[in-house]
TrEMBL record:
Protein name: Ribosome maturation protein SDO1
Principal place of residence: cytoplasm
Listed Pfam families: SBDS_C, SBDS_domain_II, SBDS_N
Biased composition (Basic and acidic residues): 169-179
Classification via InterPro entries: Ribosome_mat_SBDS_N_sf, Sdo1/SBDS, Sdo1/SBDS-like, SDO1/SBDS_C, SDO1/SBDS_central, Sdo1/SBDS_central_sf, SDO1/SBDS_N
Assembly notes: Associates with the 60S ribosomal subunit.
Amino acid sequence: MPINQPSNQIKLTNVSLVRLKKAKKRFEIACYKNKVLEWRSGIETDLDNVLQINSVFLNVSKGQTAPSADLQKCFGAKTPINDIILEILNKGELQVGERERHAQLERVHNEVVGIVASKLVDPRTKRVYTTGMVEKALEMLSAQGSQAQQEKTATPASGTGTLAPGEEGEPKPKVKEHNWSGVVATKNAKSQALDAMKALISHQPIPVARARMKLRVTCPTTILKHAAKAAGPKVPDRDEDEKSKGTVKDRILSFIEQVERQDVVGSEWEVTGFAEPGAFKGLGDFIGNETKGQGRVEVLDMAVTQED
């Protein structure tokens, strides 16, 4: 037998709240769980799939809707209700329960570990690590970071001195440290994965290196022997005079760690090889500047790995 309820009662279940404080008043909207983040990331574009009810509240749990006078005073007299809802949805603070927060953190954590495991390899065998090994390595870094932070807090900073440049004992410039303190739910998984990879490569809790990219570079043969205007990539143990010399072909090959094959097809020279991901942008800029759009760089494989 159906239960009769008052027609004006607003019953909301499985709800996530988004709150925005404006002009000393707090406004709330009721949304479906997991849909707010999808809306903000651009995955969900239909507002009806995000909102449980197309209204603005002072208190959702009590079903207390916001008076029109309050909305007009805080958001403007001529602001449509949909614009008010969008402002709250985009700028407001998302309220989630402890269980949802933990589930969201776990999702981001798994995504970060998955990205890192697909981009890093053992430099000796070129094999990828399992997600379990990557997870343990990140846990080691997190523990080391916490210990280092405690030691830094306990030890007072020493003076840097006033030695002139070139004097013996001159303080070395600070090098940016890539530390890892764990995954957070408020940051993008891809950016956190990049931070995690930098920390793993910097500290090497396990032997790791970025998986190389496989590239194909095409350039007109008439340009290859021209003197290069731009310098090649920064390579250790190579002085500035050596870096400033060379032809366009020499410079292109200096970006590629391992050449798989090179050939001349008609009026074009083509080389296929492997390069560090960090060299891709420099190579692309060099090709664009030196060939004036006649050469090109193609990515054949974003991450070359050896599977077990």
